[in-house]
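Issue: ligand-bound run for nicotinamide-adenine-dinucleotide - logging full I/O for the record.

Environment: standard queue, default settings, no custom constraints.

Inputs:
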Amino acid sequence: MGITLEKTHYQLLINGEGVDSASGQSFETHNPATNEALASVAKATPEDVDKAVAAAREAFSGAWARISAAKRTGLLFKLAGLLRERFEALARLESLNNGKAITSVKGELNQAIEELEFYAGAANKIMGSTVPVPYGFLNYTLREPIGVCALIVPWNYPILLALRKLAPALAAGNTVVLKPASATPLTALTIGEWCLEAGLPPGTVNVITGPGVEIGSYLVKHPGVDKISFTGETSTGKEIMRMAADSIKRLSLELGGKSPNIVFEDADLEAAAAGSVWAIFYSAGQSCEARSRLFVQDSIYDRFVSLFVEKAKKLRVGDPLDPETHVGALISPAQVQRVESYVQAGLSAGGRVLCGGGRPPEPSLARGNFYLPTALAIEDHRAKVTQEEIFGPVVTILRFKSEAEVVALANDVIYGLVATLWTQDVGRAHRVAGQIRSGVVTINTPFTVFPGLPFGGYKQSGFDREVALEALHSYTELKSVLVFVREKPLNPFGI
Ligand code: NAD
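Outputs:
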């Protein structure tokens, strides 16, 4: 798994140019499968953030503003074309920097391109409306871009989440400063360069890299930034909300989850087991939508759990670049330790390991951040392991008796991102879907999102929606224009 990249130093992208940090400092980014350094990356300072925001402001009222919506459509399709042409190389870079199985990365890259194309096609369809107002008046609305958008993304889906924000922000006519996570900056920096190649004017897309608590928060507080779109941990989202309050910045938050996966006794157990394994172990469980709480109805509990465990044991954990691998590496040694401590907490709370529960035994994987797909049978739904987001390949399995009981348990967390139901009873499926407090409910499928489908959270999983047309609107301000059109002039005070 020892890898050398062609390019071993990555610079910031500011005003269309690759530049080193004003301090000259860099940091290393690693391959999670081996923990070897992959490349050095410029570590931005507040001075660099000032320059990136200034460039975005200049482009917003300058070169980018002069480009029509129809032309924006063309440029975004051109970018999508470049991503398709360079698909294999980009997927490899993402897998190397993130540790995720290459087949998963390819699926995500494909989804990201389709979402980009969705917004490319929508860029010239952002319309206002006319509103019936009293005789003598005319009212119409305009949807205008907000300005400079700070897009802050985490490390678990680096390409997908960067493009999920870039595409609607640009389609709506905004300019952006993108900040990827320090663990996975390489693909965002690469896509930033390709935006220029696609013909986006310099300054339209700027990419800065460095520690979130330093330059991320500086960017959030920056007076030159009009909107923040953030994806990451709920605790960071709370901090960002506080920081954004001073200047009343527009805000979209996509935060954490602890999503339920409910298997009713009338489900197709074979399909439910296969889907449930995917729903938690995809992306090694490092997914906001990971269905990490599996609820199984009493009467089928033993049969279903043994099917689930049998399938989980078949997952191949290993080299992320091997197309046969299902589960790659976790992002860092610290993440593995975090997972270990949650499993330990689960055992202390009376949990029982049904599979996994440790690192894989193969010596070839010892240097990387691997952890086996783990299932923990537990009874206490208030335990730390069943309430907090683990962000690793660990599922807790709980037993339930009735529909009402499982709805109450499913809703008994601070999060509300996704829920999955397995049942062949149509009435039950829709009845329960209506009672679950989450932004997405999926029935008889582990998949959660396609281009156009609104994705986002209830409760502390955040607010606003991505992927859909609603996201395009969230990158606009709605202006109402009221016109007096009577011949006789208006004199409201009669003076
Ligand atoms: P994180 O909150 O630690 O970091 C996310 C980004 O914010 C990074 O770029 C980081 O550098 C930056 N950041 C950190 N502190 C900051 C601060 N004080 N000010 C400004 N920026 C700051 O999250 P993570 O560990 O990278 O990602 C995992 C989290 O993301 C999980 O909680 C997961 O559920 C969530 N997530 C949510 C969704 C969704 O759509 N709801 C999707 C993917 C991931």
